[in-house]
Design a protein that fits this description.
mainly alpha
Length: 207
């Protein structure tokens, strides 16, 4: 593999994949607005806000890709530098993940009638957003990516560990409390199993 494959190629492929997933998100948001008449207004607001954040993430990653492959074409060393679009994208991503985890913690609160796991989830979501904000700030202030990795790799590790732990905990808790609500009615049991499967798939994807 050439150096371009390991730098710009490693950036371009994930951005293209995320753009396709953004299209799926747009479709899901549209279908939700068309079919969720019984949901409270605050939930509609949350869905719309998450979609706006996802739109921002997509725009910033496109700007980063355009800067590398068009504006600074033929200058591979530009990948070693930092930019505000590179620094700001993780904050938006962490904001989306934190909102989702806060909602999951709320659902756990409703299902379990307990505050222990939800409080842990809310605190972990806040920590996730806090570490992402710190990473974005330090990335913008660092002269290049290499120096950032050398000085703050521990912060990246902390952020990733917190993200995985909160995703796995929320998913496992939701599955546990949903399974506890199984009934003797076959149709209800089937519906609960479908919800558990969907929850596990969603949690695994975010983790």
């Amino acid at each position: 593999m050439s150096k371009l494959d390991m730098t710009f190629g490693a950036l371009e492929v994930p951005i293209l994949i995320s753009s396709v997933l953004y299209g799926v998100t747009c479709l899901q948001t549209y279908l939700y607005t068309e079919r969720s008449f019984r949901d409270p207004r605050w939930l509609h607001f949350v869905v719309g806000f998450v979609w706006l954040l996802e739109t921002g993430i997509t725009v910033f990653t496109w700007m980063l890709l355009y800067s590398y492959t068009v504006t600074n074409f033929g200058q591979p060393n530009v990948a070693l530098g930092t930019s505000w679009s590179m620094a700001f994208s993780p904050v938006l991503s962490a904001s989306v993940a934190s909102i989702v985890q806060i909602f999951f913690a709320y659902r756990i609160r409703v299902l379990s009638a307990s505050l222990i796991i939800p409080i842990i989830g809310w605190c972990a979501a806040a920590m996730r957003l806090g570490t992402a904000t710190a990473i974005a700030t330090l990335t913008f202030l660092s002269p290049n990516v290499g120096e950032f990795n050398m000085r703050y790799s521990w912060l990246m590790t902390t952020h990733m560990v917190v993200s995985v732990v909160v995703d796995v905990t929320s998913t496992a808790s939701l599955c546990y409390y949903l399974l506890r609500r199984r009934t003797v009615f076959k149709q209800t049991r089937r519906l609960v199993h479908k919800i558990v499967l969907y929850t596990a798939e969603t949690g695994s994807a975010t983790a």
